[in-house]
Amino acid sequence: MVLKIRINREQEVFDKLIKIGEDLKTTAEALRQLINALLVKDDDMKNSSLIKIKSLNEKISMTREELLSVIYSEAFLPDFKEAIVMLTQDLYRASASAKDAGRALTARRVDEKCLTTLKESLLSYISIILEASDKVVLMLSLLPKDIASALKVGKEVQMLERSGDEIKDMIITRLYDMEDSLHLITLLQTRDAIFFLDDILDSMESAVLSIEILYATLKS
C-alpha cells in the first residue's frame, strides 16, 4: 500500500523542505571544492568556497524560519508538526556542521604533510557526504508522494552514514599516528574538522529517523 500525504497547505511545507535539501547538497559540493582547494593550495578557491558555504547556511536558516512560521501558524496535527520541526532542525544542523567544518579547515593553514597523508581518505569522506546529500534531496522529494519509498531512500542514507563512520575512524587513527610529527594545534584543528564532517552525516541520519516518526504517525 502506498501511503501518501494529503496535499493542501502541507505542499508549501514540503516545497520548503526540498529547497533546504537542495541547498544542503550545494553546500556539500562547496565543501568538496574547499577541500580540493586546500589540497592544491588555491587560496582564492578556498576563500570563495567558504563564503559560499556560509551564504548557503544563511539561506537555509531563512528557509527554516519560513517553514517553521507556516508550521506554527496552521492547524496541523500535533504529531505531524513535531515530526516536521524535528526534520527541519536535523537538516539545519547538517548545514551548520558543514559551515563549522569549513571554518575549522580554514582557520589556519593545515600542515602539508597532514593533508598529503589524509588526502585519499578525505576525498572519500566528502564523496560519501555528497552522495548522502543527493539521497536526502530524493528522500525529501518523495515525502508528499509516498513516505514508504522515501524511507527506502533513507535506509541508503543510513548505510552511507555507517560507511562514513568507518572512514572517520580510519582518518582519526592516521591522524594520531602522526601526532609526534604534527604541531598540536594542527592535530586539534584537523580532528575538529573531521568531527564536524561526521556531524553532517549524523544529522542526515537523524533526518531519516524524523521521517520514520512521521511515517509511524500517519499510519496510526
TrEMBL record:
Q: Which Gene3D superfamilies does this entry report, sorted A to Z?
A: Phosphate transport system protein phou homolog 2, domain 2
InterPro entries assigned? DUF47 (IPR002727), PhoU-like_sf (IPR038078), Put_Phosphate_transp_reg (IPR018445)
What is the superkingdom listed in this entry's lineage? Archaea
Q: What family does the entry list?
A: Belongs to the UPF0111 family.
In terms of PANTHER family, this protein maps to: UPF0111 PROTEIN HI_1603 (PTHR36536:SF3)
Q: What is this protein called?
A: Phosphate transport regulator
Source species: Sulfolobus acidocaldarius N8
Q: What is the lineage of its organism?
A: Archaea, Thermoproteota, Thermoprotei, Sulfolobales, Sulfolobaceae
